[in-house]
Design goal:
Elements: H1 4-18, H2 21-39, H3 45-164
Helix pairs in contact: 1-3, 2-3
Length: about 170
């Protein structure tokens, strides 16, 4: 028994062949030969029309069947393609949702980075202020030490000059 797929392949091949330019040429030649045979007296005109009409009718019946089989086959293919499209559409929707979630995550990360930058800048500014304050304090201490040293030197010098003076 023949495999249904073989019959479908045959039907598709015949439908494809009949729909080709070669088929038009072959049919035109056959019709022309039929009329030539009738006009040349090889066969009577009525008999030629009977045979030609029978052949054309049978051909039309089989072509209609082959065409319907092809349409059915194409319908199955279209249904399968539609299922694939539906699956792809679902995948696209899922990917779109994932992209949306990734976009939200990216925005959150960007906000966190901005906050960290602001905090870092604030910390850097505070550190810079502390350094300036420390420098100022150090300068004040150095200035006070200089004054103290000057005072000590002055006192020493006063003390020496007092030692040098006779006691009265």
């Amino acid at each position: 028994m023949s495999d249904p797929r073989d019959i479908e392949k045959t039907a598709l091949a015949i439908t494809k062949a009949v729909g080709s330019p070669k088929s038009i040429i072959v049919h035109t030649i056959l019709f022309a030969l039929s009329f030539f045979a009738a006009f040349s007296g090889y066969i009577t005109f009525d008999r030629m029309l009977l045979i030609l009409t029978t052949i054309v009718s049978l051909e039309a019946i089989y072509l209609a069947i082959f065409i319907q089989m092809t349409i059915n086959y194409q319908g199955q293919d279209i249904a399968e393609v539609q299922e694939d499209i539906d699956e792809i559409q679902e995948d696209v929707e899922e990917i779109s949702e994932d992209v949306g979630e990734l976009q939200e995550d990216l925005e959150e990360i960007s906000e966190d980075v901005e906050e960290m930058n602001v905090e870092e800048e604030t910390e850097e500014a505070a550190e810079e202020r502390r350094k300036v304050e420390q420098r100022e304090t150090l300068e004040d201490i150095q200035s006070d030490l200089r004054k103290l040293l000057e005072d000590v030197e002055r006192l020493k010098s006063n003390h020496k000059s007092d030692d040098m003076k006779p006691l009265l």
